[in-house]
Amino acid sequence: MTSSRAAPEHDGPFAGTGRPGPVAPPPRVPVRPRWHRRRPVLATRTPPLPPGPGDDPPPPWQPRRTDRPPAFKPAPRRVPARPAPRRDPLPGLAALVPLSLVAAFFAWVSAGPLWLAVGHSTAGTVVIADCTGGGLTQRCRGVFLAEDGRFTAHGVRVAGVPAERTATGTALPARMTGADDDTAYADTGPGRHLRWLLGLLVVAACAAAIVRCTGAARLPDRRSRRWAVAAGLAGPLLITLGFVAAAW
Q1: Which of 175, 189, 140, 183 has its CA nearest to residue 161?
Q2: Which end of the chain is more exposed for a tag (fewer CB within 10 A), N or C?
Q3: For the chain, where are the alpha helices, taking DSSP H only?
Q4: Which residues contact 116 (CB under 8 A, 6 or more apart)?
Q5: Residue 113: phi, psi to the nearest 5?
Q6: What pLDDT digit, counting tens, does each position of 152-198 carry?
Q7: What is the pTM of this model?
Q8: Is 176:125 a contact under the CB 8 Å cutoff?
């Protein structure tokens, strides 16, 4: 027993013949050029409506929706720091030596007047033996006689002699820090304070210049910078204390 499947019948000129008819091609969809294509419309976010009188407020953990998405900020690019160039130590050493000598000189000339200003002195009379020059270049020598007769100093340098009293044999009231001192101070009034005050100011200026010229304040490490600055300031200070102790 054989069975045959009937072919589907189609409309058209082949209808009723038992043969399949031609298959119709699919409909063609016109393709628009690229410049005629419309861009898709992005959906915009609308802010949520405020809750009504009967609505429940949103929970606090729910993020709040806004119209604009959060702006994206790229992380700043880290640039590796370049190491600081090393300074040449020769200019600092070349400035350290003369500044230390200047500080030592003014500490030496200020030690005696400083003791006189604080009251450590011996009053007496100085007799002028010789004076040369004038003004800042004036140089006088004489003999100092203590009031109580404890000592007599010959050939001491006399500072603060008035210009009209430089004749040989002129007696002037003066003071000395002790029998071992080589300078008698005949000036009175504010002039005796300017001798030690200006000298100590110059010493302080030399200490600041040492810190500046040697680069102690520009060290990168904080601890090293503090020690370097302290050493630069302590040098002239120790020199001054040494001369003050020697002038006692």
Answers
A1: 140
A2: N
A3: 89-117, 191-213, 222-246
A4: 175, 177, 185, 192, 196
A5: -60, -30
A6: 888 899 988 888 888 888 899 998 888 888 889 888 777 778 888 99
A7: 0.58
A8: no
